[in-house]
Design goal:
This protein is an alpha+beta fold. Helices cover 59% and strands 11% of the residues.
Length: 122
């Protein structure tokens, strides 16, 4: 991308930036999604244009911001997974303790019903 030309994306050539063309198609599309959510854009000649991104330095800034945003997203997902695992683990432990307590209560009742002296048979 030359200086003072807006960053542009089209479905055939992808981004018009040599820096962004270092990424594969999926990487460029992921970055496109980020830009579409966070930057001003226009549609011109079947291309998505980002008029405020006009230099390689601005592209580098956006890549850094995208990387931070992606890391935050991953960490939030990990925290959610940890939360669920913690809850499920705690719940499972609670159920095990309740089951053990019920078994002890059941055995205690059965022992109270049993005769104290076992009959001897001859």
């Amino acid at each position: 991308m030359e200086e003072q030309y807006a960053l542009k994306f089209d479905t055939k050539k992808l981004f018009n930036s040599s820096r962004l063309q270092q990424y594969d198609e999926d990487g460029q599309k992921g970055f496109l999604g980020y830009l579409m959510k966070n930057e001003k854009m226009e549609i011109k000649n079947n291309s998505i244009v980002f008029p405020d991104i006009t230099t390689e330095d601005k592209i580098e800034e956006k890549i850094k911001a995208y990387n931070v945003d992606t890391r935050k997203f991953i960490i939030k997902n990990k925290l959610q997974a940890f939360f669920v695992a913690n809850i499920v683990g705690s719940e499972t432990y609670q159920k095990d303790l309740e089951k053990e307590l019920n078994e002890l209560n059941k055995n205690q009742v059965n022992e109270q019903i049993k005769p104290k002296i076992k009959p001897r048979y001859r």
